[in-house]
Amino acid sequence: MYKQWVGKNVNLDLLVEGILRFLERMGFKCGGSLKKEARVTGKLFHVEIRCGSAVVRVSGHPNDFSVEFDVGPSRLLFDSGVTLFGGGVILLRKLKAREALERLEREFWLFMEDAVAHLEGSGRNLC
Fold first, then answer.
1. Does residue 56 fall inside a structural domain?
2. Contact 33, 53 (CB under 8 A)
3. Containing H/E element for 54?
4. Pairwise CA distance, residues 42 & 74, whole Å
5. Would you state the pLDDT for residue 19?
6. Contacts of 88 (CB under 8 A, 6+ apart)
7. How many CB atoms lie within 10 A of CB 108?
8. I need a surface site. Which of 54, 66, 106, 115 has the fewest CB within 10 A?
9. Alpha-carbon span 91 to 45, nearest angstrom
10. How much is the pLDDT for 40?
11. Which domain holds residue 26?
12. Per the domain annotation, does 126 fall within a domain?
């Protein structure tokens, strides 16, 4: 899922630190997975955080930035023949994992709304 915020003047470094703490609280191991891909004279910001099967991308500048959150595969490729021959247990596990990932995504976006509201006005607007 992808969301964009405009006119919030958020310190993106602090936002990324908060995202890392959130993911670690949720049980993800994020050590060494933070990649800043580009930073041009303080105006553009792009960072990718890879933690297990979760990927978070933060792009933009303090007054116009976006966050993309992607968790693992969400497709289930089973037919009725597989479930007939014992695949039902595997299907059930995948469905439970999918529910957990959907719950994680909902909690992430609630966290993001709170974090952006808390950090509003903290950015350095160099544009």
1. yes
2. no
3. strand 54-61
4. 36
5. 92
6. none
7. 20
8. 106
9. 40
10. 47
11. 2-119
12. no
- Identify whether 34 is part of a domain: yes
Work out how many domains the chain is built from and give that number: 1
Hunting for tokens 């529910």 — which residue is that?
99
- Give the residue from 57, 58, 54, 56 showing the smallest Cα distance to 71: 54
Task: With cut-offs at 50, 70 and 90, classify the pLDDT of residue 4.
Answer: very high
Kindly list the strands in the beta sheet with 44-51, ordered across the sheet, starting from the edge strand earlier in the chain.
2-6, 64-71, 54-61, 44-51, 34-40
User: Per-residue pLDDT for 124 more than 80?
Assistant: no
Kindly report the number of other CB atoms within 10 A of residue 98's CB atom.
Answer: 16
In a domain, 30, yes or no: yes
- pTM as predicted: 0.76
